Amino acid sequence: MMKRSLAMLGTMIFLASLLAAPSWAQDDSVATGTPVAEEGGETTQPVLDPEDPIASMTGPVDLGEAVRRGLTYNPQIEAARFQLSGSEYGRRSQLGAFGPTMTAGYGYERLDREPSTAGRVTGSRDRWAFSLNVTQPIFRGFELLSRYQRAKIAKEQAEAQLSNAELTLVRTIQTTFLDLLKGRMDVKSAEDAVARLTSQLQVTQAFFDVGLRPKLDVLQAEVDLATAEQTLLVAKNEVATQTARLNTLIGLPLEYPTEYVGELDYLPFMRSLDDCLATAYRQRPDLQIGRKSVEIAQQDAKITASDFYPDVDATYKYSQSGDSPELRGNPRNRTGYSSWSVGAQASWTFFEWGKTYNAYQASKENVAKIEAELANTRLDASFEVKQNLLDLQEAADRIGVARKSVEAAQEGYRMAVARYQAQVGTNTDVLDAQSRLTDAETQLSSALADYQKALARLYVSMGVRNISLATE
User: From the record, what ranges are coiled-coil (predicted)?
Assistant: First the structure.
Protein backbone atom coordinates (compact mmCIF):
# COMPACT_ATOMS: atom_id res chain seq x y z
CA MET A 1 0.00 0.00 0.00
CA MET A 2 2.82 2.36 0.96
CA LYS A 3 4.70 1.65 -2.28
CA ARG A 4 1.58 2.27 -4.37
CA SER A 5 1.01 5.60 -2.63
CA LEU A 6 4.60 6.68 -3.12
CA ALA A 7 4.35 5.76 -6.80
CA MET A 8 1.23 7.90 -7.12
CA LEU A 9 3.02 10.77 -5.36
CA GLY A 10 6.00 10.48 -7.72
CA THR A 11 3.68 10.57 -10.71
CA MET A 12 2.00 13.76 -9.50
CA ILE A 13 5.36 15.46 -8.88
CA PHE A 14 6.46 14.50 -12.40
CA LEU A 15 3.31 16.02 -13.88
CA ALA A 16 3.86 19.19 -11.88
CA SER A 17 7.39 19.45 -13.26
CA LEU A 18 6.05 19.17 -16.79
CA LEU A 19 3.66 22.00 -16.08
CA ALA A 20 6.48 24.26 -14.95
CA ALA A 21 8.75 23.22 -17.85
CA PRO A 22 7.99 26.31 -20.00
CA SER A 23 9.51 28.46 -17.28
CA TRP A 24 12.54 26.21 -16.69
CA ALA A 25 13.18 25.91 -20.40
CA GLN A 26 14.00 29.58 -20.59
CA ASP A 27 17.50 30.91 -20.45
CA ASP A 28 18.81 30.75 -16.90
CA SER A 29 20.25 34.21 -17.21
CA VAL A 30 17.56 36.80 -16.65
CA ALA A 31 17.26 39.27 -19.48
CA THR A 32 18.83 42.65 -18.97
CA GLY A 33 16.57 44.59 -21.27
CA THR A 34 15.95 45.24 -24.92
CA PRO A 35 18.29 47.83 -26.43
CA VAL A 36 16.62 50.99 -27.70
CA ALA A 37 16.80 51.24 -31.47
CA GLU A 38 19.66 53.43 -32.56
CA GLU A 39 19.80 55.74 -35.55
CA GLY A 40 20.25 53.75 -38.73
CA GLY A 41 18.41 50.69 -37.40
CA GLU A 42 21.43 49.28 -35.52
CA THR A 43 21.71 48.29 -31.88
CA THR A 44 25.16 48.71 -30.40
CA GLN A 45 25.99 47.06 -27.09
CA PRO A 46 29.02 48.29 -25.11
CA VAL A 47 31.92 45.85 -25.18
CA LEU A 48 33.58 46.83 -21.90
CA ASP A 49 34.67 45.15 -18.71
CA PRO A 50 31.66 45.67 -16.40
CA GLU A 51 33.76 45.09 -13.29
CA ASP A 52 36.58 47.60 -13.77
CA PRO A 53 35.84 50.96 -15.45
CA ILE A 54 39.42 52.23 -15.05
CA ALA A 55 41.12 49.15 -16.50
CA SER A 56 39.15 49.51 -19.72
CA MET A 57 40.39 53.06 -20.33
CA THR A 58 42.55 52.70 -23.42
CA GLY A 59 42.71 56.21 -24.85
CA PRO A 60 40.77 59.37 -25.58
CA VAL A 61 37.01 59.34 -24.97
CA ASP A 62 34.74 60.88 -27.59
CA LEU A 63 30.99 61.44 -27.28
CA GLY A 64 30.00 57.98 -28.46
CA GLU A 65 32.51 56.25 -26.18
CA ALA A 66 31.35 58.31 -23.20
CA VAL A 67 27.76 57.21 -23.79
CA ARG A 68 28.75 53.56 -24.16
CA ARG A 69 30.75 53.66 -20.94
CA GLY A 70 27.87 55.33 -19.13
CA LEU A 71 25.45 52.63 -20.24
CA THR A 72 27.85 50.05 -18.84
CA TYR A 73 28.98 51.55 -15.55
CA ASN A 74 26.35 54.03 -14.38
CA PRO A 75 24.58 52.79 -11.19
CA GLN A 76 21.24 54.18 -12.38
CA ILE A 77 21.24 51.71 -15.27
CA GLU A 78 22.35 48.92 -12.96
CA ALA A 79 19.36 49.64 -10.71
CA ALA A 80 17.00 49.43 -13.70
CA ARG A 81 18.55 46.10 -14.69
CA PHE A 82 17.95 44.74 -11.19
CA GLN A 83 14.34 45.85 -11.44
CA LEU A 84 14.03 43.97 -14.72
CA SER A 85 15.57 40.86 -13.18
CA GLY A 86 13.10 41.04 -10.31
CA SER A 87 10.16 41.30 -12.72
CA GLU A 88 11.33 38.13 -14.49
CA TYR A 89 11.35 36.23 -11.21
CA GLY A 90 7.89 37.63 -10.51
CA ARG A 91 6.68 36.22 -13.82
CA ARG A 92 8.14 32.82 -13.01
CA SER A 93 6.50 32.95 -9.59
CA GLN A 94 3.08 33.52 -11.13
CA LEU A 95 3.69 30.71 -13.61
CA GLY A 96 4.31 28.38 -10.70
CA ALA A 97 0.83 29.18 -9.32
CA PHE A 98 -0.69 27.03 -12.08
CA GLY A 99 0.87 23.90 -10.60
CA PRO A 100 -0.22 21.88 -7.58
CA THR A 101 0.61 22.81 -4.02
CA MET A 102 1.91 20.02 -1.80
CA THR A 103 1.97 20.05 1.99
CA ALA A 104 3.30 17.27 4.17
CA GLY A 105 3.22 16.73 7.90
CA TYR A 106 4.96 14.32 10.27
CA GLY A 107 4.34 14.33 14.00
CA TYR A 108 4.31 12.52 17.34
CA GLU A 109 2.04 12.68 20.38
CA ARG A 110 1.76 10.70 23.64
CA LEU A 111 -1.61 10.08 25.29
CA ASP A 112 -2.21 10.18 29.04
CA ARG A 113 -3.55 6.62 28.90
CA GLU A 114 -3.84 3.76 26.47
CA PRO A 115 -6.93 4.04 24.26
CA SER A 116 -9.56 1.39 24.97
CA THR A 117 -13.03 0.38 23.92
CA ALA A 118 -15.37 -1.46 26.33
CA GLY A 119 -12.44 -2.09 28.64
CA ARG A 120 -10.32 -3.52 25.85
CA VAL A 121 -7.05 -1.79 24.94
CA THR A 122 -7.09 -0.87 21.24
CA GLY A 123 -3.85 1.02 20.78
CA SER A 124 -0.67 2.44 22.20
CA ARG A 125 -0.09 5.64 24.11
CA ASP A 126 2.53 6.59 21.48
CA ARG A 127 1.14 7.91 18.20
CA TRP A 128 3.16 8.72 15.10
CA ALA A 129 1.45 10.19 12.01
CA PHE A 130 2.33 11.27 8.48
CA SER A 131 0.07 13.19 6.09
CA LEU A 132 0.38 14.46 2.53
CA ASN A 133 -2.07 16.85 0.86
CA VAL A 134 -1.88 17.79 -2.83
CA THR A 135 -4.15 20.51 -4.21
CA GLN A 136 -4.36 21.29 -7.92
CA PRO A 137 -6.24 24.47 -8.90
CA ILE A 138 -8.70 23.71 -11.70
CA PHE A 139 -10.61 26.99 -11.96
CA ARG A 140 -10.11 30.21 -10.03
CA GLY A 141 -12.29 32.57 -12.01
CA PHE A 142 -9.43 33.36 -14.44
CA GLU A 143 -7.45 34.83 -11.53
CA LEU A 144 -4.35 32.69 -12.07
CA LEU A 145 -4.23 33.44 -15.78
CA SER A 146 -4.76 37.15 -15.21
CA ARG A 147 -2.05 37.30 -12.54
CA TYR A 148 0.41 35.54 -14.83
CA GLN A 149 -0.41 37.86 -17.73
CA ARG A 150 -0.04 40.82 -15.39
CA ALA A 151 3.40 39.64 -14.29
CA LYS A 152 4.41 39.11 -17.91
CA ILE A 153 3.28 42.62 -18.83
CA ALA A 154 5.08 43.98 -15.76
CA LYS A 155 8.30 42.46 -17.08
CA GLU A 156 7.73 44.09 -20.48
CA GLN A 157 7.08 47.37 -18.67
CA ALA A 158 10.35 46.94 -16.76
CA GLU A 159 12.14 46.50 -20.09
CA ALA A 160 10.62 49.79 -21.29
CA GLN A 161 11.64 51.43 -18.01
CA LEU A 162 15.21 50.24 -18.55
CA SER A 163 15.14 51.70 -22.06
CA ASN A 164 13.75 54.95 -20.67
CA ALA A 165 16.51 55.09 -18.05
CA GLU A 166 19.11 54.49 -20.76
CA LEU A 167 17.69 57.28 -22.93
CA THR A 168 17.64 59.66 -19.97
CA LEU A 169 21.28 58.83 -19.20
CA VAL A 170 22.24 59.24 -22.87
CA ARG A 171 20.70 62.72 -22.89
CA THR A 172 22.45 63.66 -19.64
CA ILE A 173 25.86 62.46 -20.85
CA GLN A 174 25.49 64.12 -24.23
CA THR A 175 24.37 67.43 -22.70
CA THR A 176 27.24 67.38 -20.22
CA PHE A 177 29.74 66.46 -22.94
CA LEU A 178 28.52 69.32 -25.14
CA ASP A 179 28.70 71.74 -22.20
CA LEU A 180 32.31 70.62 -21.75
CA LEU A 181 33.10 71.32 -25.41
CA LYS A 182 31.41 74.72 -25.15
CA GLY A 183 33.40 75.43 -21.99
CA ARG A 184 36.61 74.68 -23.84
CA MET A 185 35.61 77.08 -26.64
CA ASP A 186 34.86 79.72 -24.01
CA VAL A 187 38.26 79.12 -22.43
CA LYS A 188 39.94 79.55 -25.81
CA SER A 189 37.97 82.75 -26.45
CA ALA A 190 38.80 84.08 -22.97
CA GLU A 191 42.50 83.26 -23.45
CA ASP A 192 42.49 85.10 -26.76
CA ALA A 193 40.77 88.06 -25.10
CA VAL A 194 43.38 88.12 -22.31
CA ALA A 195 46.16 88.00 -24.91
CA ARG A 196 44.61 90.84 -26.91
CA LEU A 197 44.02 92.98 -23.83
CA THR A 198 47.54 92.29 -22.54
CA SER A 199 48.96 93.45 -25.85
CA GLN A 200 46.74 96.53 -25.80
CA LEU A 201 47.79 97.35 -22.24
CA GLN A 202 51.45 97.14 -23.26
CA VAL A 203 50.90 99.47 -26.22
CA THR A 204 48.89 101.90 -24.11
CA GLN A 205 51.52 101.84 -21.37
CA ALA A 206 54.22 102.57 -23.93
CA PHE A 207 52.24 105.50 -25.32
CA PHE A 208 51.69 106.81 -21.80
CA ASP A 209 55.36 106.50 -20.96
CA VAL A 210 56.25 108.83 -23.84
CA GLY A 211 53.37 111.19 -23.05
CA LEU A 212 51.16 110.30 -26.03
CA ARG A 213 48.25 108.87 -24.01
CA PRO A 214 46.70 109.84 -20.68
CA LYS A 215 46.82 107.67 -17.56
CA LEU A 216 43.07 107.06 -17.97
CA ASP A 217 43.70 104.89 -21.04
CA VAL A 218 46.11 102.72 -19.03
CA LEU A 219 43.60 102.33 -16.20
CA GLN A 220 40.82 101.38 -18.63
CA ALA A 221 43.04 98.78 -20.24
CA GLU A 222 43.98 97.34 -16.83
CA VAL A 223 40.33 97.08 -15.76
CA ASP A 224 39.30 95.33 -18.98
CA LEU A 225 42.26 92.94 -18.68
CA ALA A 226 41.30 92.07 -15.10
CA THR A 227 37.69 91.47 -16.19
CA ALA A 228 38.87 89.17 -18.99
CA GLU A 229 41.08 87.25 -16.57
CA GLN A 230 38.09 86.69 -14.27
CA THR A 231 36.05 85.46 -17.22
CA LEU A 232 38.87 83.06 -18.06
CA LEU A 233 38.90 81.71 -14.51
CA VAL A 234 35.14 81.13 -14.62
CA ALA A 235 35.44 79.34 -17.97
CA LYS A 236 38.21 77.08 -16.67
CA ASN A 237 36.17 76.24 -13.59
CA GLU A 238 33.24 75.31 -15.82
CA VAL A 239 35.47 72.95 -17.81
CA ALA A 240 36.70 71.32 -14.60
CA THR A 241 33.14 70.99 -13.31
CA GLN A 242 31.83 69.37 -16.49
CA THR A 243 34.83 67.04 -16.62
CA ALA A 244 34.15 65.85 -13.06
CA ARG A 245 30.47 65.44 -13.86
CA LEU A 246 31.27 63.35 -16.92
CA ASN A 247 33.60 61.17 -14.88
CA THR A 248 30.82 60.38 -12.42
CA LEU A 249 28.35 59.63 -15.21
CA ILE A 250 30.64 57.05 -16.81
CA GLY A 251 31.77 55.43 -13.57
CA LEU A 252 35.22 57.01 -13.13
CA PRO A 253 36.71 58.77 -10.07
CA LEU A 254 36.15 62.53 -9.92
CA GLU A 255 39.80 63.40 -10.39
CA TYR A 256 40.58 60.78 -13.04
CA PRO A 257 42.50 62.51 -15.90
CA THR A 258 40.13 61.48 -18.66
CA GLU A 259 40.99 62.81 -22.10
CA TYR A 260 37.68 63.88 -23.61
CA VAL A 261 37.92 64.75 -27.29
CA GLY A 262 35.48 66.34 -29.70
CA GLU A 263 34.42 69.56 -31.35
CA LEU A 264 31.20 71.50 -31.65
CA ASP A 265 30.06 71.41 -35.24
CA TYR A 266 26.97 71.95 -37.33
CA LEU A 267 25.31 68.69 -38.44
CA PRO A 268 22.32 69.29 -40.74
CA PHE A 269 19.11 67.51 -39.69
CA MET A 270 16.78 66.75 -42.60
CA ARG A 271 13.90 64.75 -41.10
CA SER A 272 10.41 66.25 -41.19
CA LEU A 273 8.11 66.81 -38.23
CA ASP A 274 5.74 64.06 -39.36
CA ASP A 275 8.61 61.59 -39.60
CA CYS A 276 9.86 62.58 -36.14
CA LEU A 277 6.37 62.21 -34.62
CA ALA A 278 5.83 58.81 -36.22
CA THR A 279 9.15 57.61 -34.80
CA ALA A 280 8.30 59.00 -31.37
CA TYR A 281 4.88 57.32 -31.25
CA ARG A 282 6.50 54.03 -32.21
CA GLN A 283 9.65 54.03 -30.08
CA ARG A 284 9.33 56.32 -27.05
CA PRO A 285 9.75 54.18 -23.90
CA ASP A 286 7.42 56.34 -21.82
CA LEU A 287 4.60 55.66 -24.29
CA GLN A 288 5.40 51.95 -24.10
CA ILE A 289 5.34 52.20 -20.30
CA GLY A 290 1.97 53.92 -20.51
CA ARG A 291 0.54 51.25 -22.78
CA LYS A 292 1.79 48.54 -20.45
CA SER A 293 0.24 50.38 -17.50
CA VAL A 294 -3.12 50.25 -19.26
CA GLU A 295 -2.73 46.52 -19.88
CA ILE A 296 -1.75 45.93 -16.24
CA ALA A 297 -4.82 47.87 -15.07
CA GLN A 298 -6.99 45.73 -17.35
CA GLN A 299 -5.54 42.57 -15.83
CA ASP A 300 -6.16 44.00 -12.35
CA ALA A 301 -9.80 44.44 -13.32
CA LYS A 302 -9.95 40.79 -14.42
CA ILE A 303 -8.38 39.70 -11.14
CA THR A 304 -11.04 41.65 -9.24
CA ALA A 305 -13.79 40.13 -11.41
CA SER A 306 -12.56 36.63 -10.58
CA ASP A 307 -14.41 36.91 -7.26
CA PHE A 308 -17.67 36.62 -9.22
CA TYR A 309 -16.84 32.99 -10.03
CA PRO A 310 -16.49 29.83 -7.93
CA ASP A 311 -13.15 28.20 -7.12
CA VAL A 312 -12.66 24.55 -8.09
CA ASP A 313 -9.75 22.45 -6.83
CA ALA A 314 -8.74 18.81 -7.17
CA THR A 315 -7.30 17.19 -4.04
CA TYR A 316 -5.32 14.14 -3.10
CA LYS A 317 -4.83 13.18 0.55
CA TYR A 318 -2.70 10.44 2.04
CA SER A 319 -2.14 9.59 5.71
CA GLN A 320 -0.29 6.89 7.63
CA SER A 321 0.05 6.27 11.37
CA GLY A 322 1.55 3.88 13.90
CA ASP A 323 2.99 3.50 17.38
CA SER A 324 6.57 3.81 16.08
CA PRO A 325 8.42 6.18 13.73
CA GLU A 326 8.13 3.52 10.99
CA LEU A 327 4.35 4.17 10.88
CA ARG A 328 3.42 0.44 10.72
CA GLY A 329 0.32 0.57 12.85
CA ASN A 330 0.43 -1.22 16.23
CA PRO A 331 0.45 -4.85 17.39
CA ARG A 332 -3.30 -4.78 17.88
CA ASN A 333 -3.99 -3.31 14.40
CA ARG A 334 -1.53 -4.23 11.66
CA THR A 335 -3.95 -3.31 8.87
CA GLY A 336 -5.73 -0.09 8.04
CA TYR A 337 -2.94 2.12 9.33
CA SER A 338 -2.78 4.09 6.02
CA SER A 339 -5.42 5.67 3.82
CA TRP A 340 -5.73 7.91 0.78
CA SER A 341 -8.45 9.79 -1.05
CA VAL A 342 -8.92 11.89 -4.17
CA GLY A 343 -11.64 14.38 -4.82
CA ALA A 344 -12.73 17.78 -6.04
CA GLN A 345 -14.03 20.76 -4.16
CA ALA A 346 -15.91 23.86 -5.28
CA SER A 347 -16.53 26.98 -3.21
CA TRP A 348 -18.39 30.13 -4.19
CA THR A 349 -18.91 33.35 -2.29
CA PHE A 350 -21.93 34.60 -4.20
CA PHE A 351 -23.05 37.58 -2.10
CA GLU A 352 -21.05 40.25 -0.23
CA TRP A 353 -23.42 43.25 -0.21
CA GLY A 354 -21.90 44.76 -3.38
CA LYS A 355 -18.29 44.56 -2.23
CA THR A 356 -17.02 42.68 -5.28
CA TYR A 357 -19.20 44.59 -7.73
CA ASN A 358 -18.03 48.01 -6.53
CA ALA A 359 -14.41 46.88 -6.41
CA TYR A 360 -14.75 45.76 -10.04
CA GLN A 361 -16.30 49.08 -11.05
CA ALA A 362 -13.46 50.92 -9.31
CA SER A 363 -10.90 48.87 -11.24
CA LYS A 364 -12.66 49.74 -14.51
CA GLU A 365 -12.52 53.43 -13.63
CA ASN A 366 -8.82 53.04 -12.93
CA VAL A 367 -8.36 51.63 -16.44
CA ALA A 368 -10.10 54.67 -17.89
CA LYS A 369 -7.91 56.97 -15.76
CA ILE A 370 -4.69 55.38 -16.95
CA GLU A 371 -5.88 55.49 -20.57
CA ALA A 372 -6.49 59.24 -20.17
CA GLU A 373 -3.01 59.66 -18.69
CA LEU A 374 -1.57 57.77 -21.67
CA ALA A 375 -3.38 60.12 -24.05
CA ASN A 376 -1.90 63.09 -22.17
CA THR A 377 1.58 61.53 -22.33
CA ARG A 378 1.17 61.17 -26.08
CA LEU A 379 0.23 64.85 -26.40
CA ASP A 380 3.22 65.86 -24.26
CA ALA A 381 5.47 63.70 -26.42
CA SER A 382 4.27 65.37 -29.63
CA PHE A 383 4.82 68.83 -28.11
CA GLU A 384 8.30 67.86 -26.92
CA VAL A 385 9.27 66.71 -30.41
CA LYS A 386 7.90 69.92 -31.96
CA GLN A 387 9.63 72.12 -29.38
CA ASN A 388 12.99 70.40 -29.84
CA LEU A 389 12.67 70.67 -33.61
CA LEU A 390 11.95 74.40 -33.32
CA ASP A 391 14.90 74.84 -30.94
CA LEU A 392 17.09 73.00 -33.44
CA GLN A 393 16.01 75.25 -36.30
CA GLU A 394 16.51 78.36 -34.18
CA ALA A 395 20.03 77.33 -33.19
CA ALA A 396 20.86 76.52 -36.80
CA ASP A 397 19.86 80.03 -37.85
CA ARG A 398 21.86 81.52 -34.98
CA ILE A 399 24.98 79.64 -36.08
CA GLY A 400 24.96 81.32 -39.48
CA VAL A 401 24.43 84.77 -37.98
CA ALA A 402 27.06 84.20 -35.27
CA ARG A 403 29.71 83.16 -37.79
CA LYS A 404 29.17 86.36 -39.79
CA SER A 405 29.28 88.33 -36.53
CA VAL A 406 32.65 86.79 -35.60
CA GLU A 407 34.11 87.64 -39.01
CA ALA A 408 32.88 91.23 -38.73
CA ALA A 409 34.10 91.56 -35.14
CA GLN A 410 37.56 90.24 -36.05
CA GLU A 411 37.85 92.75 -38.85
CA GLY A 412 36.55 95.54 -36.62
CA TYR A 413 39.11 94.72 -33.94
CA ARG A 414 41.94 94.63 -36.48
CA MET A 415 40.95 98.04 -37.80
CA ALA A 416 40.56 99.53 -34.31
CA VAL A 417 44.04 98.34 -33.31
CA ALA A 418 45.54 99.70 -36.51
CA ARG A 419 43.85 103.09 -36.02
CA TYR A 420 45.01 103.27 -32.42
CA GLN A 421 48.61 102.46 -33.30
CA ALA A 422 48.44 105.10 -36.02
CA GLN A 423 47.24 107.62 -33.40
CA VAL A 424 43.94 108.22 -35.23
CA GLY A 425 41.81 106.05 -32.93
CA THR A 426 41.15 105.91 -29.23
CA ASN A 427 41.81 103.31 -26.59
CA THR A 428 38.06 103.06 -26.01
CA ASP A 429 37.58 102.06 -29.66
CA VAL A 430 40.02 99.17 -29.22
CA LEU A 431 38.49 98.00 -25.96
CA ASP A 432 34.98 98.14 -27.39
CA ALA A 433 36.06 96.23 -30.49
CA GLN A 434 37.74 93.59 -28.29
CA SER A 435 34.57 93.25 -26.19
CA ARG A 436 32.42 92.86 -29.32
CA LEU A 437 34.77 90.18 -30.65
CA THR A 438 34.63 88.22 -27.38
CA ASP A 439 30.83 88.48 -27.31
CA ALA A 440 30.61 87.29 -30.92
CA GLU A 441 32.80 84.27 -30.17
CA THR A 442 30.71 83.44 -27.10
CA GLN A 443 27.50 83.69 -29.14
CA LEU A 444 28.94 81.33 -31.74
CA SER A 445 29.96 78.73 -29.17
CA SER A 446 26.55 79.04 -27.50
CA ALA A 447 24.74 78.60 -30.81
CA LEU A 448 26.81 75.52 -31.73
CA ALA A 449 26.28 73.98 -28.29
CA ASP A 450 22.57 74.79 -28.27
CA TYR A 451 22.20 73.21 -31.70
CA GLN A 452 23.77 69.92 -30.71
CA LYS A 453 21.98 69.85 -27.36
CA ALA A 454 18.68 70.42 -29.17
CA LEU A 455 19.66 67.60 -31.54
CA ALA A 456 20.35 65.31 -28.57
CA ARG A 457 17.01 66.20 -26.97
CA LEU A 458 15.21 65.66 -30.26
CA TYR A 459 16.57 62.16 -30.72
CA VAL A 460 15.70 61.27 -27.14
CA SER A 461 12.20 62.69 -27.57
CA MET A 462 11.81 60.36 -30.58
CA GLY A 463 12.96 57.37 -28.51
CA VAL A 464 16.13 56.96 -30.60
CA ARG A 465 19.46 56.29 -28.90
CA ASN A 466 21.86 58.15 -31.17
CA ILE A 467 25.01 57.86 -29.08
CA SER A 468 27.31 59.92 -31.34
CA LEU A 469 24.66 62.39 -32.64
CA ALA A 470 25.27 61.35 -36.23
CA THR A 471 22.64 62.74 -38.61
CA GLU A 472 21.31 61.31 -41.82
Answer: 148-175
